[in-house]
Design goal:
This protein has 270 residues and is of the alpha+beta class. The chain is 27% helix and 22% strand. The protein has two domains: 4-128, MutM-like, N-terminal (N-terminal domain of MutM-like DNA repair proteins, Alpha-Beta Barrel), CATH 3.20.190; 141-264, Helicase, Ruva Protein, domain 3 (Orthogonal Bundle). Helix 1 (4-18) packs parallel to helix 7, helix 4 crosses helix 7 and helix 6 (170-180) crosses helix 7 (193-212). Zinc ion binds next to loops.
């Protein structure tokens, strides 16, 4: 599933091409992707001009030249493809026809992705419930300690909880905990302030590096136009079970936490 670096890469790449473009028409191939009837959706979005694209957590937020926002979650297999007019695409679920002849296709093989419209972004419940962005100044070891003080969960599941820090998923959670030298099974209330400080530092470091590499392509994630990210070449623990730890040579372990795989080094991470 695309995580923060993948979503941000898509935001950056779409911004270069579609800001200032006007949606001339829109074709809905799969109604379950959108949040209203296809007639209402098409009517609401027709002749809207893209003015900006941003990200919150794993959501893409498209802003138009009137009080209207389009909020997209890619889930498992959602992606955007920009193509010249008149191209058919089997998994194109929503097709935005732009005023320069390009089509922006929301392509989603498994159809778990969502596209919602909102006339008041500040009242959008899912966005409102998201926690801090990793680069938010409000995210400090002290604020994190207060937020976590009554939690019984492991630090790994806390990293996946979008209401605490927004944007992380399974790949980066393992990589961040390896960088921070923290055991993923550790109950989060047992972390010291200096470990929380390191956790925040490692989060920013790993995400910045992934962003520089346009994300991680292991299975479904693609950049705009099907290009691949390259951070998979720099992973240290994710998917590396049985391979020697790059620091101490002990084989990397794979365990399940809440039905999700976690990869770590039992010697380096305490
Ligand atoms: Zn190790």
């Amino acid at each position: 599933m695309p995580e923060l670096p993948e979503v941000q890469t898509i935001v950056n790449e779409l911004s270069q091409t579609i800001i200032g473009r006007i949606i001339k028409s829109c074709e809905i191939k799969r109604d379950s992707v959108i949040d209203r009837s296809s007639t209402d959706f098409r009517r609401a979005i027709r002749n809207c001009k893209f003015t900006s694209i941003s990200r919150k957590g794993k959501y893409l937020i498209f802003q138009f030249d009137k009080p209207l926002w389009m909020i997209v979650h890619l889930r498992m297999t959602g992606k955007f493809i920009l193509v010249a007019d008149h191209q058919e695409n089997r998994y194109g679920r929503v097709i935005f026809k732009l005023d320069n002849g390009l089509q922006m296709i929301f392509h989603d093989v498994r159809c778990f992705g969502t596209i919602e419209l909102s006339s008041d972004i500040d009242k959008h419940k899912k966005l409102f419930s998201l926690g801090c962005d990793p680069w938010d100044k409000a995210l400090t070891p002290e604020s994190l300690a207060i937020k976590l003080r009554h939690r019984k969960a492991s630090v790994k599941s806390i990293l996946l909880n979008q209401s605490i820090i927004a944007g992380l998923g399974n790949i980066y959670a393992s990589e961040i905990l390896f960088d921070a030298k923290i055991d993923p099974t550790r109950v989060v209330t047992k972390l010291t302030l200096s470990q929380l400080k390191q956790l925040i530092k490692s989060t920013k470091k790993i995400l910045a590096s992934a962003l520089k590499n346009n994300g991680t392509t292991i299975s479904d994630y693609r950049r705009v136009d099907d290009k691949q990210g390259t951070f998979q070449n720099f992973l240290k623990v994710y998917g590396k079970q049985g391979e020697p730890c790059q620091t101490c040579k002990t084989p990397i372990q794979k365990i399940k936490q809440n039905q999700r795989s976690t990869f770590f080094c039992k010697i380096c991470q305490r």
